[in-house]
Amino acid sequence: MLVESEIELPGLNKEFNGAPHVTIRYGTIPKRLNNIIGKGILFENNSNELILRIESVSSYLISNGDSIIISPCDKATLEEIRLFLLGSCFGALLQQREVFPLHGSAISFQNHGLVFIGKSSSGKSSLAAGFVKKGYNLLADDICAISEKNKNVMFIEPGLPHIKLWKDILEYLEYEGDLVKIRPSLEKYRKNELTNYCNIPKPIKRIIALSTSNKSDFAFTKISGTEKFNLLRENSYRFKFIKEMNLITSHFKFLSSLSNSVELYMLERPVSPIKIIELVEYIEEQLFAAK
What we know:
CATH architecture of the largest domain: 3-Layer(aba) Sandwich
Structural class: alpha+beta
């Protein structure tokens, strides 16, 4: 997807030919949309527009799946503005195009996309970073955009070549240099310009849902049937947007295709201590055995 932006977006290739698919501009955003059909605490939308308002950061107008207008607050940092632009705004833009991302991180594994999903703090980005540290290529972090390129074959599109991690994970994995704090109040950083990065779509073969427990061991279970579909739905990116934009029918059709074309596993890990490298090795053992 070609993007033309007035705000710098680190990691994007600045050289491209052809008309952009998406334009990003600074501008004025209306106080209210016309013909509102849905709203939440931070957003409102009509059939082809969505306004997202983040207090003390910025307001964003996402339109027609091809335009984002930014109206920043006076004291907001560029990093904060980019955080929500590349997160919720791009998520809504993709949904307007009827591309439905999963909330997760993904790597290239055995020439396929391996996606990690799970609740907040389940370790999606940390696990992806562990695989990257071991030499695998990152495909996406936070937003995993998935499309059906061939019948019954789902592909994950490459995201940006960076990953967001908490300070303790960065120290544990010994990541250094080119770290940018994503918000002044958070000890969370963006690791830029990863050298281990895959920039081509990969077919998805397996998805791993992460959960935590008080047990000391890992547990790996294959999920099927209704539970499989529901887990994918629960880990859809910003499901509230999908519901309020009246995209439930299209979204459920997508989830059904995804559920029928991939294997889904539940991976239970201890709450503590951090065992990222051990978890990477455990997954390798399980998936190489299932090859």
